[in-house]
Specification:
Helices cover 43% and strands 0% of the residues.
């Protein structure tokens, strides 16, 4: 969000909840099983 403010752009994801760590682990596993390299964060 701070990047949008820095460039004076509207942030369209307001009100959207961040996925839980558990959900991110599920998604990582799903994509990794299809052969997609996954890195969460950074």
């Amino acid at each position: 969000k701070s990047k949008y403010n820095k460039f004076n752009l509207p942030y369209r994801m307001n009100g959207t909840e961040q996925p839980s760590q558990e959900r991110m682990k599920e998604l990582k596993k799903f994509f990794a099983e299809t052969g997609i390299k996954v890195k969460i964060g950074g």
